[in-house]
Predict the 3D structure of the following.
Amino acid sequence: MRTKLIAANWKMYKTPDQTSEFFRNFLPLVSGHTRDEIAVCPPYIDIATAVQAAKESNVGIGAQNMYWEKEGAYTGEISTGMILAAGCKYVIIGHSERRQYFGETDDTVNKKLKVALDAGLIPIVCVGEVLEEREAGLTEDVLRRQCTNAFRGISAERAAKLVVAYEPVWAIGTGKTATPQIASDAHVVVRAEAGKAFGKQFAEDLRILYGGSVKPDNANALMSEEEIDGALVGGASLDPKSFAAIVKY
Ligand code: PGA
């Protein structure tokens, strides 16, 4: 039985004060909720505030990105050691916005994934096709390529904490959600790739989240799918009531 993970990706939204306010309102709405694992990934600048606010709660904190070197002259970057020391449990890797706007590739995703796993973080690796790829019938090829490259050179033992998020790029921030069937079909492809890389049992235990315009009114249908092991939520995670409603789908 895979415990579902409902994770908030705040992207570049909220100041530390707004982060405090979010947790003040959000935590009472989900206190005692044990059915699902809950995570919030705020901007770096808000992590300390979020960790402090969520201390002793059922909500874990994550970062939205990381760099693979331990330390050094890498202006603007943050290492897994820093993320862990700040109190994070999770790190998002290879979000489509990072791939689209910040030059991340399958290769950088693979480098980051290795370092995140070795650091003991729970990596949430994002994969997903853009609209043109879907329309050209390339969705499966894209998912296979992204997964094979992300998983390259990693053993099943090392990958134990891996989480994958299937996020079709055409569904992110557009209000266009993948149907539960579309998401499920994609998850089957990702699971098969994980099976090839890490073995059948690993693939069966692997949590694959769906992301892309998850809202309170579509969360239940998506989360009811056998193949869908949680959600990565952008826009709808910024409001405490709406994110709590998704957590409690
Ligand atoms: P969205 O974003 O829920 O706003 O579509 C999801 C994501 O990008 O992780």
The first helix runs from residue 16 to 30.
